[in-house]
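Protocol step 4 of 5: obtain the predicted structure for the target chain.
Materials: sequence only (see below). No template structures provided, no constraints applied. The aim of this step is simply to have a reference model before the mutagenesis design in step 5. Sequence pasted as it appears in the construct record:
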Amino acid sequence: MQKIGIGYEFYKDIVDDRCYYVDKTLFIRDVIEKGGKVTLFTRPRRFGKTLALTTLQTFFECECDREGNVIDNSRYFFGKKIMGAGKEIISKLGQYPVIFLSLKSVAQTDFSSAFYRLRYEIFNEVIRHSYVLNADRLNDADREKMKDLLKRAAKPFFGDRADSRFTEEISVVSQALKTLSACLKQYHGKDTIILLDEYDVPLESAYFGGFYEEMTGFVRSFFESTLKTNPSLEFAVVTGCLRISRESIFTGLNHLEINSIRATSFGEYFGFTQEETTAMLSDYGLLDKVDEVKDWYDGYLFGLTEVYNPWSVTKYVKDHVNVRDWLPESYWANTSSNAIVRNLIEKADKNEKEDLEVLIDSGTVEKKIHEDITYADLESTEDDNLWNFLFFTGYLRKEAERMDGEEIHMLMRIPNREVRSIFSRQVRGWFERMVKATDRETLYRAVMAKDTQIMEEYVTDLLDKAISVFDGTESFYHGFLLSILIGLPHYTVKSNREEGDGRPDIILYPGRRREPAIIFEIKVRKAYNKMDDGIAEAFSQMQEKRYAAGILAEGYNGVVAFAGCFCKKSVIFDVKPNFEEPSMSREHEVYPQGKLE
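Step 4 output (structure tokens):
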């Protein structure tokens, strides 16, 4: 079996290390036949964008070493699908100068740091093409420009943002790829192909870092010189997660061809199709896992093509080759910060919370969809901008769409269990942070005073702020109540500790010998008129399992027993201040509901 290459993004590395490869080389043909002068592909993180671009680079580039010797890359395509695409396509193999620039590393916390990193990446590409100075093919002006770029590349730049030298450096860097393109054209006699990977990473980090306008201005200038006013450009392919509106950074790029997840072409090149996924599982003896993989990692709809998350499928196969019974995981959740989802949840209003509840409960929501967005729109609730972000970044998939006048309305749902777990995790995290930030002194006083009315009001108020995606799950309410009781002065909180003949949900053990221990037993009901039954069941369970006997046997000064019953966002409590099990002679007696003596 071939090596499963986790973390491999560069096409050459996959071939050189003989890793398992799902053949997507016909992407090259379709870029030639269907692509524009500048084509922007927007797809979610970890769906093969970098691999797609490095495949293009390996195919098209007339690669040269530092001395100008041509490197033959044709071996990387022996036996691949592209070799059957016809003579006209194959004739372009190794025929063009190529500039490849990744902006992944430009995710910094301030503009200066982001600019320094982008400068470093651009100048590295200038250095890679320094061979153009070895032959007498450049005109004098471009030769001097190239020499100047190389001098700057050799010398680190650290200037103050207000310094005029910083402004000058920004101007030089923004024009650098245009200058390099002209030099490459003179050297090779052909226009240059430019490949820009993850173009929107600097914009995302700038948005969350508070320097979005500054970064947008620089990127706009950089794109204009590189992609718009560049006479040495053969074509360009740009990738990212989001299409950022023309008005923000693509000003004047009238020749921009945008291929988002709604486009009807190129859908099969980003992600694994059903056929490709089944073949991979078969190759590694995991055909019996098809249904599980589909449930967890399928469900993305790119244009007319349904695809699996390629990162998650690959990780799943690797784990299950090593340990066949390994449980499925949410692999995609660990590949990025999921800051957009967190931002949505923490700022959600009542209606948005209700929509999230529906989605996490496997339902659908209908929202207006438009592709001309900016990161600044994330702050706005107009035009359903937040839901647009979730859709175009892969957290939601299309079920259906309709036109209402000139607006597109899309019915959406969460694509699979993996993404649903991301939402659930973010919801839980937000709820836990909210609980920790809440003043719990009121609750603590009510517990010690055995004031169940105040306890009910406090807990219900917290639940009312939550997103009710865990209704009906006792484990959620158990964990919630446990988290807000931790911190009760002079008490140690334990969960599911064995006492008597069972395990009470929560026990609070006093640190002072004169204080009683406190038991909480929790039940859940789906209907409000059944909540009293839940209270009775909780007290009966505490009696039958003899929880108090075990605690009293340890020498504690009495037991206070609280029974709680949750239903959706409501709770009721009842309390028995001096709780003891009935004597053995009465242990089979039937007790009136909630009236245990």
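Step 4 remarks: Confidence is low (pLDDT under 50) at residues 583-597. Residues 30-47+96-261 form a domain with the Rossmann fold fold (CATH 3.40.50).
Proceed to step 5.
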